[in-house]
Amino acid sequence: MKKTYKYAVVGLLFLFLAGCEDFLDKREDSGGLTEEAVYSSYESIRGFLDQVYPKLEAYNTFEGADDGKNQRTYVGVMADEMSATYNKTVFAKFFSGAWLTTDKAANVTEIGNGSNTPIGKALPSIRIVNRVIANIDKVPLTGEQRNEILGQAYFYRAWFYFNVIKRYGGMPILDKVFAGGDDDIPRVTYHESSAWMVGDIDQAISMLPDTWPDNQYGRPTKLAALAFKEMALLYDASPLMQNDLNSVQIKSYDQERAKAAAKAAWAAITYMKQNEAKTGVRLATADEYMNLFWFPDTELKRVETIWWRRRIPSDSDRSKTARAFWLYADMTGGTGSESFAISCPTLNAVNMYERKGADGIYYPINDTRSGYKFDPEHAFIDRDPRFYNNILIPGDTWGTYASGKPYYIRLWRGCTAYNNYGSSKHTNGRQLSGFMCRKFLWPEANYRHDQTLGTTKPFLQKIAQTVFIRATQLYLDFAEASFEATGSATAKVEDCGMTAEEALNTIRNRIGVTDIPSDIVSDPEKFREAYRRERGVELMFENHRWWDVRRWMIMHTLFNEPYPIKGVYFDPVGSYEDSADGKSGTRPASFTYTVFDMEKEIRGFSNMRNYWYPLPQHDVDALHNLQQNPGW
């Protein structure tokens, strides 16, 4: 007999109570499954569990709607990496810093709890996973099949829970399917939440396979779980997470927790190295590096990818990803909001890249040894090679016109492509930063390259994928954890075969950047700046920066100016042929550079309360035991 369930669902915390009723309550002859059918076989329970996979964030691809509007702004704008040109950017509410809502389910980008938001996807997914774990013994499974299902279930539960607590702080332990009457449970501290979550990750490590068949590639593996564990432990050791439910104060790292994170990161690195032949995962070489961040149709694997969301987008979404996120209107051939809504790297981000000095050593640009000057002969010459992989500036050659003539990035003041942003109804209320993101692009992704293909086909040659963890992060996490555990860049955590300095140099050397200068290594404050800068450069635009500046508790100082986001005006020196016909165009001989405040890029995050997101007030009012975050 088919079972049905009734629940009193009261908002945020109980979204996870309502996630799977549609699947269970549909009759088999209408395309759904009864509960008995769900737990009847390996295939059926795996299909039930697989419902959570599309709930994973897909921030690197255009996907559906957000806050009632199409997604036209990239997540890189959340901190200081990028600026948004679209007047109706879905991040407007987020930028304000006024995050509290009284709505029961608000689809407000990032900070809401409606079904289109990360929180609104995470909690129902946890409910589905809890049902799988609770009912696994009903299913006839081999030992291998049981491990595959449970390993994924524990991994997913931990991952979705992590996406909740890194926003809200400690939350109730969601370890079962709650029935009516036992659901008003109190929050616990971040440390308690993390400890329970890491227990799930340990279960996943013990059960998940080393690899999956090619047609299943994208499911979590043992290495993904090992990497997730060290990442979770690093967050747990970080300053923000040392606060309890009643405080948001500047804290230091917990050294013992940092030591645990370093050991976990070393275990993940060791496993990765020992199993490279089996998993295919390793650090990319310099030659491979530029191809890490986009994927051909026929090759969804990249050597550094550890944990990612596999998605083959429609032609429409694939085209919109390039046009709405990365390309300015002249390169898209369109006049609509998707064509104009580029997310631009900021000068704040550009300034993270080091410069090679006269001695051949790379230094931060605020170090006089770098030889950095803000002029055409120095500003963007001899920078860290990753700068040229990640950033385009006005006048850079990027592919060709259909005629074979070079196409130059046309974001200097005065040219038609630039001026169009001041007159378009989609962007006339915001500002271009002067820079363009190259990291996820290829030169043929340009309408001007072959206009006969129309405004869609030029952008279909490659696929963007959302990568959550890649091999590089293991070394960056290790460097941070090891240094914060020992207070030294050259000391080793017990049972670890590497120092923080060696970990960072491994990442730098493989791309052609020299070792960190010895005087920086020996100075704890300078080395902390160095590992954070290295992380900012290597993981730029990969959805880490926002979480990092929060857990480090530097956000309130990073955004304490009225206009903290900076751009550059590139003004032409000499004549040039404009590209009004879209078929040819030249660049001026040189440019002058002027830094300006991006006054439209408000970041209202200087209040300490913004380190944690507020819980929807509707839920706090409805539940006796649900405590609101401090300051909200």
Structure description:
This protein is mainly α and 632 residues long. Among the domains are: 1-188 and 610-632, Serine Threonine Protein Phosphatase 5, Tetratricopeptide repeat, CATH 1.25.40; 315-464 and 566-597, no CATH class. The chain is 36% helix and 9% strand. It has helices at residues 21-25, 35-38, 42-49, 92-96, 118-135, 143-168, 190-207, 222-237, 255-274, 276-279, 286-289, 315-326, 329-332, 337-340, 347-350, 385-390, 416-423, 471-486, 500-509, 518-521, 524-538, 545-551, 555-558, 617-622; strands at residues 65-66, 69-70, 82-84, 295-296, 305-309, 343-345, 355-356, 362-363, 391-392, 397-400, 406-408, 436-437, 462-463, 466-470, 566-573, 590-597. The strands form eight sheets. It has a two-stranded antiparallel sheet with strand order 1-2. Strands 3-6 form a two-stranded antiparallel sheet. Strands 4-13 form a two-stranded antiparallel sheet.
